[in-house]
Design a protein that fits this description.
Elements lengths: L1 H37 L14 H6 L8 H16 L7 H23 L13 H23 L3 H11 L8 H5 E5 L20 E5 L15 H31 L5 H60 L22 H10 L5 H6 L1
Antiparallel strand pairs: 1-2
Helix pairs in contact: 1-4, 3-5, 5-8
């Protein structure tokens, strides 16, 4: 199993991917150049012995996106995180692969591919969720690998539950079960041992009931206790690692402290600018409203002055003398007399005719 993982890490990641990243673009470029030579040459106005830069860029392979690059990193991260407990050299080979691939990718993007279009992105998108899921799943896988493929849990169980002295003395004998050779099927009985004695019982590593018990070869209580301890270790390990990861994520913020403080200052300044603008707008509205109110008051005062002026003129204007009906002078437009003027004339000439006042 370790050889298989070694072949995967060295063969696929370090050799296959890196060779293909450089070799495939060169082969495609060569094929494109050969196809362009077979076509009829077009009339292009250019300097003799020198091609334009866009002609040189057109011979390069078009950029297919970052999906293959992300996929390669996801596969590498999966191998490293899922099987690190069984193959501890996987992170070392991944580091060597990444150091080499950085330079190969730089050479590929500069000399073998066309310039990619720049697109603004907030983050790496769905790939972050995939990496996060792989990280959580790898915790469970490594917990099962540690608890079920090693003697770490059985040793602890024996030391704290079955050892009389609290030490590991007698642990090997505790993990071995008995088997009666007479229970072998015909033709499967082992040969005589080198000691020259017949073999009656053999020992094997398992937690089974002995042949002389009431339930021979059944799973013993020690097996169930060890299994419960292993499952408990898986749950404890998973919760502990997740808690530690959450604690580290809380202690180390995504945004540095100085940048967060600068963002807070910018937000505070922006709020102050908005408040000042709102205050200026409110003052402008109040000034316009007060000016309109003053103008309306002035207009009302002018209208009242204009209405009171004719009344004063009519009060101070002298009354013309009465004319006879037979007069040939042109008749003037009669004016309406005020009530005070009418009473004053009545008091001054009580003997005068009322028709004369109406004529006036």
């Amino acid at each position: 199993m370790k050889k298989l993982r070694l072949i995967i890490m060295l063969g696929k990641q370090l050799i296959q991917n890196n060779i293909f990243e450089i070799g495939i673009p060169k082969l495609k470029k060569l094929c494109r150049t050969l196809k362009d030579k077979e076509r009829a040459p077009k009339e292009i106005v250019e300097q003799p012995g020198r091609r334009q830069q866009w002609h040189l860029d057109y011979d390069l392979e078009p950029f297919d996106g970052l999906t293959p690059e992300y996929m390669e990193m996801i596969i590498q991260f999966g191998f490293v995180s899922l099987f690190v407990a069984s193959f501890p050299l996987a992170p070392l080979f991944a580091l060597l692969n990444n150091v080499i691939e950085i330079r190969l990718d730089a050479k590929k993007f500069v000399t073998e591919l066309r310039r990619p279009d720049a697109i603004r992105a907030k983050d790496i998108g769905i790939w972050y969720n995939i990496l996060s899921g792989l990280g959580k799943f790898s915790v469970i896988i490594n917990a099962f690998v540690i608890s079920f493929t090693s003697d770490f849990i059985p040793r602890l169980v024996y030391q704290y539950m079955y050892s009389e002295t609290g030490t590991m003395h007698g642990f090997i004998n505790h993990t071995l079960s008995y088997f009666n050779v007479s229970n072998f099927k015909p033709g499967t009985v082992p040969s005589i041992s080198s000691l020259g004695k017949d073999v009656t019982f053999c020992r094997y590593k398992d937690y089974r009931e002995p042949p002389w018990s009431t339930e021979p070869y059944q799973l013993s209580k020690q097996y169930w206790s060890v299994l419960a301890a292993r499952l408990g270790f898986v749950i404890l390990f998973q919760n502990l690692v997740i808690t530690m990861s959450m604690l580290v994520a809380w202690v180390i913020p995504d945004v540095p402290k100085n940048i967060s403080e600068q963002l807070k200052k910018e937000k505070t300044l922006l709020v102050d600018v908005f408040l000042n603008e709102e205050k200026e707008k409110l003052q402008l509205i109040q000034s316009l409203f007060s000016r309109d109110l003053i103008q309306e008051q002035q207009k009302e005062q002018q209208v009242s002055d204009q209405t009171s002026l004719p009344l004063q003129q009519t009060q101070t204007e002298p009354v013309p003398p009465a004319t006879s009906p037979a007069s040939t002078a042109p008749r003037t437009r009669p004016r309406a007399a005020s009530f005070s003027q009418f009473t004053r004339q009545m008091s001054m000439s009580p003997q005068s005719n009322i028709t004369q006042h109406t004529a006036v």
